[in-house]
Amino acid sequence: MPFFKSMADNVGPPAIFDLYPDLDRPWSELSHTLLNGPSPLSQGERELIVVFTAGAVGCKFVFVAHAEVAHEWVFEEGVVGKLLADPGKPNRKA
After folding, report:
1. Distance CA 71, CA 60 (A)
2. The whole model's pTM is what?
3. Which distant-in-sequence residues (6+ apart) come within 8 Å of 65 by Cβ?
4. Of 15, 72, 2, which Cα lies nearest the Cα of 43?
5. Helices then strands (H, E): number in the chain?
């Protein structure tokens, strides 16, 4: 279900930014800082948080965009599906 009832169910952030271009830059800067700025978490761990959150709330756009990135950093393919099924057991590559 979209946050904007006037939009299609499968709408993603690009459609919002097309309608409200003034939101793109602040959102982009925030995203960049959260994923790449100083943090006690690795970039892989931060990507995993993004993917898990997107999966938990059903945001396919973000889920698909970040799942492969999380996989490339540290986590085995399919780990997010496993986490969504059992959030207490993280799975790392050996």
Report:
1. 16
2. 0.64
3. none
4. 72
5. 5, 0
Amino acid at 66: H
pLDDT in tens, 10-32: 677 777 788 888 988 888 898 88
Q: What are the tokens at 19?
A: 């309608």
Whether residue 43 contacts residue 34, with contact meaning beta carbons closer than 8 Å, is answered with: no
CB burial of 32-65 (b: ≥16 within 10 Å; e: otherwise) equals: eeebeeeeeeeebbbbbebbbebbeeebeebbee
Report which of 54, 55, 59 is spatially closest to residue 1, judged by C-alpha positions: 59
Residue with tokens 């396919």: 60
Separation between Cα atoms, residue 75 and residue 45, nearest integer Å: 9
CA distance 43 to 66: 12
Q: What backbone torsions phi and psi does residue 92 show, to the nearest 5 degrees? A: -110, 155
